[in-house]
Amino acid sequence: MAQATSPPEVVKEDARTRRGYSSDAAGLGSLRAGAFVAPALLLIAAFLVFPALWVLYLGLTNYRLTGAAAAEPEFVGLANLLDAVFNPTFWNSTWLTVQFVLGSAVIGQVVLGFTIAWLLRDRAGPLKRLVEGLVILAWILPSAVVSFLWVALLDRDGGTLNALLGIPGFPWLLDHPMLSIIVFNTWRGTAFSMMLYGAALGNVPPSHLESARLAGASGWQQLRDVVFPHIRGHILTNLLLISLWTFNDFSPFLLTAGGPDGRSEVLAVHVYKVALQSGELGYGAAVSTIILLINLVVAVFYLRLLRSKK
Amino acid sequence: MTRFVLGRIGFCTLIAVLLAFFTIPLLWLVTAPFTSDPSYEVKVPDFTWDNFQAVVEHPYALPSLYNSLVLSVGTAVLVVLLAALAAYALSRVRLPGRDALLYALLLLSSIITGTAAMVPLFQLAVELNLIDSHLGLILILTGGLLPAAIFMLKDFMDSTPKSYEESARVFGASPLQIVRHVVVPLVRPGLATIGVWALANVWGNFLMPYLLLSDVEKQPAAVITYTLYTEGGQANLSMLSTFGLLYSIPVVLMYLFVSKKYGFRFHGGIKR
Amino acid sequence: MAAIELRGLTKVYPGGVKALDSLDLDIPDGEFFALLGPSGCGKTTLLRTIAGLETATGGAVVIGERDVTGVQPGGRDVAMVFQDYALFPHMDVTDNIAYPLRIKKVAKGARREKAEEVGARLGLDHLMDRRPGQLSGGQQQRVALARVMATQAQAFLFDEPLSNLDARLRLEARTFLKKLQRELGVTTVFVTHDQAEALAMADRMAVMEAGHIRQIGTPVEVFQRPANTFVAGFIGSTPMNLLDGAVRGDTLEVAGCKVAVPIAAEGRLTDGEKIVYGVRPEYMAYSAGPAEGVLSGKVAIVENLGASHLVTLDVNDVLVQAVVPEGSEPAVGDDGHALPRRDRALVYRDGELV
Ligand SMILES: Nc1ncnc2c1ncn2[C@@H]1O[C@H](COP(=O)(O)OP(=O)(O)OP(=O)(O)O)[C@@H](O)[C@H]1O
Ligand SMILES: [Mg+2]
Question: Which residues form the ABC transmembrane type-1 domain (chain A) (predicted)?
Fold first, then answer.
């Protein structure tokens, strides 16, 4: 039948651009729409954008919390940045941060999250709910509370861990502060990866797995040949997001406060210590600028990825 | 057959280890509050309520929970209200520069974190006299959560058909009537999700109140908890454990509520 | 109740798509008018522009002698049924039907009463407390109709209201809708891309293509005398044979055969000119033996239409279709001859009816 599309005068646009042209369904009008958006944008501008810009400026001054430089900050150009670059404590913090992100996010949370999701992939019932519930609980409890739970767990004298291992008096937080916060953050953040991989595994067509099984593939071969190709995008998304979050995580402060002797002073804690405890706002701002730049790089990567997926 | 048995054993051991790893740190929180004179050790509790009595009598404990409530409810209400208005307008009206704006919002929300912005935020609060002000903290927290909230809500609104609104419009409803009668009920699950997300986020937030509230009477539970175990030599464990439990319960209830009502649907990045 | 007039109506979407190109249309009061056309030709756009959901780029919309071109949708006194019905999922049937009255600030009691009255009329009485999600497609469609009826608007606009129903239900709903419109006597514009639906229901119809109206007329006129080859090809459950040919003296040469000039074209053709000869398969007399003025060829395909068969003849490499009553269908490979009815065949010159 002659049901063919009769082309209009201009070439038909593809579905995406067409949806982009959402006409004004409720008859709001640009003016009212602008008024709807304005309050939110105002708050964002004042308390998010402006601080970010200001941090760039502060980084170029010798601003201090107290003293003469507090009243009349001077422009010092790149001195703060150079300070940071030649400051061994800065590099120490950066190196600790790399360990923290690699250890707790990239290795800890991803591996553990995927393992749990894989073990529970086609299970239902109480066991799955129990495991998932506990993992999620670790994630949703207030950070101040869970930090203290870990302080209790790792306590050298009465701590549960030493009691279990039979090594009373072993000072975990003093002897292995980095290991402590890495394991702590793995424990705390695994839920996100577990849920993401759980959702991703649910999207792997069962028929693909079945045909691999029929062909005699072992568990590992199924993972490699069927599952990983399917969830590669999810893995990347997950990696970028949790790296970003872990990089900016302040909760190591609650556990070790950066100590002892700065041996667990990741960048987030470093900024707090130099800027707000020692009062060197200018130097702290310069380090913040570096953090912002690293965030920017990761975020742009992530958004690129999102776009290419759409 | 042996392979199958070995597999089973392997599976069970792994699950057992995982369960232990995730349970052991939590045990103390559920035993110590009911133990008289608790230590760091996990002991079988003797079910005393004395510790709760101590919390009630503590000058800052209950007020700090109230402060947490004020901060999180205030922020959640503001976030939901402002994000809903903005997301609706952005979803339905072709404002100039909309796509660039959304992209910028998404970018901003992921790069400007509390860690990166603590120095200028502290400065800003000092300059604007917002130190020790709940309202100031609420505004700052709202500004931080809004971009992600707008983004999630806009996604949600984009996926609700426009014909409902158009239909109401042909019947003569005014834009505000349409929003009240049609849009709000339709996107209510989305609003609830964002509300809970904001609530949970602020309830657990430590850094911002720690930076911006120095008056103990104004500090929320997160800061008080931290103070309880860092200051004054020997930590008061009965106080800490009991207070921590009270402080945690609302989060757990909220989680149960959400997972019951909406099924804990996976929202990428629901928590930062 | 009101007539609808469109004067030079033009709609250009941002991005440059000209969805309506200077349309003129008169729909008298109380008429059931169908808008028919292929996907993307601008039917929905036309309907939405009448409703005011799209603002016209040029021209005017007049409803009941009132120029409403610049008026908001709510002020035009029309009611619309959307293709997906747009029933509010959070309201029950009663509230859905009563919603237009709520906007008009009718008191709650009166609203309910009216909703129940209209609902009962459409056989929805036992469903009034349900939500749209708990209704079947056919029931949803009736709720949407009830909601529109409750408005007591000047005109009804329907955008493919039957396309979400399955084939059987669609036939039922067709009859129901037609009967309802008769009883209410409200001017109704009905969009569809199903030509059978338009032919069956409309008092008059317009066939659209790419933002233009190609023909306006009663279903009989449009079916029997399509004004151009586009309409000829679009209307009819089996498409019309449209065969290239030329005038040869007082006969036509079509697909290498000589056929008589149709009655409608007599005296209007000049010798030697190129034409398109159109005849519906239903208006062909098929026979096994040759005769004067037939199209002769070999049977290529025989398709069963139920009470008849559609036979496709290969006439000197041109395919010609004819409908053959049951019992006398040929076998593939037979010689076949089809004689067009002179009073129903048509001639098109440059795509337009002669
Ligand atoms: N909001 C819009 N923005 C830009 N172009 C549009 C928009 N809506 C429709 N168009 C274009 O206008 C033309 C007419 O569209 P319309 O929806 O009116 O077609 P239709 O006849 O109703 O088709 P269908 O039978 O598929 O519903 C199409 O080319 C379409 O791509
Ligand atoms: Mg349409």
Answer: 95-302
